[in-house]
């Protein structure tokens, strides 16, 4: 009951204010745009001063540290991995139907931080120098056999028609 009376009082106040400012008054002295057939012209005074471009200091990011490595591809099969081919060294699970879609790589142990390198699991690496199809951004999810040095392995599926070994591949750590 109190709410109803309060709402009615507020509504009557709003109507009184609206009438005072001629929002609803037909006899308002303000010209209606529909009645005025003349073209409206706005006269704006230009400021006394001119606007100059504000120079924002550009903070250049330091160039990415790049490494030159060899690259190959690997398939998630026991002969090229361990006894659990669909689980990477960091515990990630590989999609059995389309492993290539992950864009994951394995790095040789000398590159990995666990064995003294600069690359960690989960790091994003920009890879160039392999091929148009395989160059791009990858995430480190696996490590290679300890006998391999200064190399990366790109994860692809057995059905993917990709084979090869590439030298002078550039990798840049993004994070």
From TrEMBL:
It comes from the Bacteria. Keywords: Signal. Residues 1-18 form the signal peptide. This is 3D domain-containing protein. It comes from Pontibacter diazotrophicus. The lineage of its organism: Bacteria, Pseudomonadati, Bacteroidota, Cytophagia, Cytophagales.
